[in-house]
Records
---
Amino acid sequence: MRIDPYADAPRLPERDTVDPRLLVGAGSEPIELEIGPGRGWFLIERFEAEPNARMIGLEIRRKWAILVDRRLAARGFGERARVFAEDARGALPRFPAACVSIAYLHFPDPWWKKRHQKRLVLTPELARELGRVIVAGGELFVQTDVVERALAYEQVVGLEPAFEPWPGGPRLEENPYGARSPRERRAIEDRLPVVRMRWRRRSTAETPPP
Ligand SMILES: C[S@@+](CC[C@H](N)C(=O)[O-])C[C@H]1O[C@@H](n2cnc3c(N)ncnc32)[C@H](O)[C@@H]1O
């Protein structure tokens, strides 16, 4: 019999609706969300920079979800931060509205061939869900080293009425969160250009009709 080494990967509760705030002891306060944390160092460094943060990671690869969730627990952050082995595209629609303060997507979608389109994470559907789960005044931060991807993200998020570019435009020079993702570190070491973008979630009153 073949044993599944990742059978005990942490999963979200099997319910139609899941409040991620309750999984990290945040009560009714919005939490930070990372989609695709990979090896997870951004979450750890973010905690070190912002010890009061409460965070959830959604990572489709069960191996990384297990490893990073255990790493957070081993550092004593387990009550405040968890990583779940989930496809963000299926998980976000189960979250209540306005439960996230900042959503991070660091270097999602590293592929650019046409046959990889169906794997894309930051699609118009996900942008709509992010607009629903991020609180008014909250933030969406996306960075990539694929220039074509950056242009596509600007279009996708730009078309989502819930978001407006951060004052001064969506692009920013530096990552303002006091923490770097593994791929970000490698891109910097390899001197690859990194495009960083940030949007603000409009309030309902500010959101133009679709
Ligand atoms: C290129 S890696 C970047 C990893 C990390 N964010 C970094 O910057 O080092 C993209 C990550 O997104 C994860 N991923 C891809 N599609 C996903 C999805 N639909 N839901 C959650 N995670 C996903 C991958 O497994 C991988 O860990």
---
Amino acid sequence: MSEQRQRDWEQRYHAGQTAWDRGAASPALEHWLDAGLVPRGRVLVPGCGHGHEVAELVRAGCHITAVDIAAQPVIRLTGQLTELGLHANVVQADLLHWQPAEPFDAVYEQTCLCALDPGHWAEYERCLRDWLLPGGRLLALFMQTGRAGGPPFDCPLPDMRALFDEVNWLWPTEPPLEVPHPNGLVEMGYALSRR
Ligand SMILES: C[S@@+](CC[C@H](N)C(=O)[O-])C[C@H]1O[C@@H](n2cnc3c(N)ncnc32)[C@H](O)[C@@H]1O
């Protein structure tokens, strides 16, 4: 685990600088569940934060592994799931130095990419590919900030098309979900598949 990376995120949680946190599950999840796009198998939630989507995914019948670099959200999410009588595998780890025991049927990628320095995006895309089974689904919410710097780093759609290239990823033909965030930013949602 990069100690500096961990310290930075830990510090944001301790300072309450969590503008990304909706306080509830994203409407994108409900949409994808209703559309039958979430496989009821092994699902990874990278950069889960407080993980409002995790309980919903467990209730929907998914077997969840949720990962975050910071201890605070991991401890809080673990406690909340216990109170709810739900089970998920909640892990504190740096995703750039983490390997699951088995691959996943799906990844629910809610603004973890935009939390990583773009210098690590190619490495992270490679990880996502390795973590998913062939044909596995990547439910991705790409943050649109329209400005330089971060986190959150802007994830322009042409850059996402280049990062998740057609050789390795199948893009949906349907238009993307446009998911406004209470913090004023917008996320664009796509259900990709790993080839
Ligand atoms: C923008 S927040 C999104 C949190 C959550 N998905 C949500 O939408 O509320 C990004 C999250 O990724 C975590 N994170 C950042 N870098 C990470 C890394 N290298 N490995 C694991 N988690 C990381 C942060 O601690 C933070 O909780």
---
Amino acid sequence: MTVIAEATLSTFTPAKDRQYHDVDGAAYYLPADKEEADRLNAQYLLLKDIFGGNAIYAPVALSGDEWVLDNGTGTGAWIMDVRSAIPPSISMYGVDLQTRLVPLNPPSNTHFLQGSLLDLPRDWTDRFSLVNQRLLVAALSQDDWKKAVSEIYRVLKPGGWVQILEVSGRLFTPEGRTDGHADMFNNIAGKIRAGRGIVGDCFEDIPDLLRGQGFRNVAVVEERRVPMGNKHGQVGERMLRNIVSLYQGMKSPALDCGTVSSERDFDKVVDAFEARCNESGGIETRWYAFCAQKP
Ligand SMILES: C[S@@+](CC[C@H](N)C(=O)[O-])C[C@H]1O[C@@H](n2cnc3c(N)ncnc32)[C@H](O)[C@@H]1O
């Protein structure tokens, strides 16, 4: 693995109080700070509820001295949750561009490494029984997705499983209706991604990418459509809080690509979006879980 030097702060103008990272060649644009760690942890619990409580949904039974990898681990929330449900003899690895958000003193079978999921260690070939990868929607170009899937294939041992959870990079409105606030979000997020070559609807390509790489038993395990706002119960409220926090985290890259002219304008756009979701409901997020097996 190319071990990346200590991640530095972003070259784009950071919005007040937010920290981003800027690793050479990496397109990822969301913050890496305490606020984002809180958002990722809340999102982890929310998605666990939405997907029926299963952190491991690939049909894999882990035992003995097997290895498990979490690509783009973020705060390490998945690893720290899963390790309580599997034998302590299993070795857990989490890889991320930066490791600022992971637990400071992980248990002895748990290792967090700084590096890119596009270039995993050479000596990991055929090593892992399970690779988990979640929410790289703000990070990867089409070529990166191909590389990521080929690296996952390489590090899995024959018979090993990958599980991938993704979200559409767009928000959706009910069939045939447009909504200025959803359009604004999609426009801002779309411009940020376009400037960085990032694919927003990666979920559409994942099954073909997996099959093209040689995976078998490729399955879309679940699709979940989750509307936001206080008209949609607790899950709707939690989802709105999370998407509002995500939106706020897009402030610096949004200012940088000129979609809004000032921090104040951006804050107003996000406030109006939040009020709109609570007043009228109807704007939804779409989430997808896939799994596949290396023959
Ligand atoms: C939206 S967060 C999701 C974190 C975690 N998977 C979760 O579900 O909570 C995306 C993470 O991927 C990491 N990331 C982005 N590009 C990466 C790359 N090329 N290699 C490794 N990690 C990457 C980011 O630093 C960030 O922590």
